[in-house]
Amino acid sequence: MSEDATEKQLLHLVIGGELTSLEGKTFRDLDALDIVGVYPNYETAVAAWKSKAQQTVDNAHMRYFVVHLHRLLDPQGDK
Questions:
Q1: Distance CA 53, CA 67 (A)
Q2: What is the pLDDT of residue 1?
Q3: 3-73 CATH
Q4: Domain limits, the chain
Q5: Residues ≥6 apart with Cβ < 8 Å to 25
Q6: Which residues are CB-contacts of 48 (< 8 A; sequence separation ≥ 6)?
Q7: Pairing of strands 12-18, 34-39
Q8: Which residues contact 77 (CB under 8 A, 6 or more apart)?
Q9: pTM, entire model
């Protein structure tokens, strides 16, 4: 893999699950957490997030999130 490809890779994680309340971000059951996947950039992560969110639109407590893994891996690096 070239250095240029590595520099442009900004990993994002898409996860979701049922929340304990509509106002919070606490998952009801961590064993039932839906780990959708890890994506190489924000755009593909948002597409996956949108797809999963639309599939669960009938459950108000179900939420999906995009986590910026690249910020956790390198908190002082570029955004």
A1: 15
A2: 47
A3: 3.30.70.2400
A4: 3-73
A5: 19, 63, 65
A6: 14, 36, 37, 39
A7: antiparallel
A8: 70, 71
A9: 0.81
Positions of E strands within the chain: 12-18, 34-39, 62-67
Q: What is the DSSP letter of 5?
A: H
- pLDDT (tens place) for every residue of the chain, 79 residues total: 444 554 578 999 999 999 999 999 999 999 999 999 999 999 999 999 999 999 999 999 999 999 999 888 887 775 5
Q: Which amino acid is at 54?
A: Q
pLDDT at 7: 56
Q: Give CA–CA dist 74/24, Å, rounded.
A: 27
Residue whose token pair is 């070239």: 2
